Amino acid sequence: MLEQDRSILITDDDSGFRETLSGIFEPLGFRTLLAADGVEALDIVRSERVHLLLLDMHMPRLTGLETLKQLRAWDISTPCIMLSAELDDAIRDAARRAKAFDVLGKPVSRQDITDVVARAFREAYDWE
Fold first, then answer.
1. How many other CB atoms are there within 10 angstroms of residue 8's CB atom?
2. Which of 33, 38, 98, 113: disulfide with 9, CB 3.0–4.6 Å?
3. How far apart are CA 105 and CA 84, in angstroms?
4. Phi, psi torsion values for 52, nearest 5 degrees
């Protein structure tokens, strides 16, 4: 599968952050889908092929953690990487219990996020 066939759903209530992440991954050949909150993310997952989700922990309507729990309740095992500006042990533990692939603190470096995304694709799909 070519990178452009690989899709990343970026979910964050900060439009600038969504656009920044999209600007990192699209030039690498990934198709990016953008959602402002968990409700939008779930709508997209129901209608589009999504290979990986980047989910902010703190959003209105439906948080990243609530979104992840709903995906798992639907038996969707798509890798989810959680992002939080208020990262602590409680958030890490909650994300792991909900079967998040990984949790990153904000601000996140380009290198850190691309490394974790690459590792998720490798582990979930055996894609390089």
1. 25
2. 33
3. 5
4. -160, 145
The percent helix, strand, coil of the chain (3-state, each to 5) is 50, 20, 35
**Percentage of the chain lying above the pLDDT 90 cut:** 84
Domain architecture of the chain: domains with CATH:
3-122 (3.40.50.2300)
Instruction: Give the tokens for residue 94.
Output: 């909650």
Written as six digits, the tokens of 50 are: 């999504």
Rounded distance, CA 99 to CA 104, Å? 14
Instruction: List, for the chain, all residue ranges whose pLDDT scores fall below the cut of 50.
Output: 1
Q: What is the average pLDDT value for the chain, to the nearest integer?
A: 92
Contact residues for 53 (Cβ-Cβ < 8 A; gap 6+)? 8, 9, 11, 41, 45, 67, 68, 71, 78, 79, 80, 81
What's the pLDDT score for residue 1?
44
Both structure tokens of 100: 């998040």
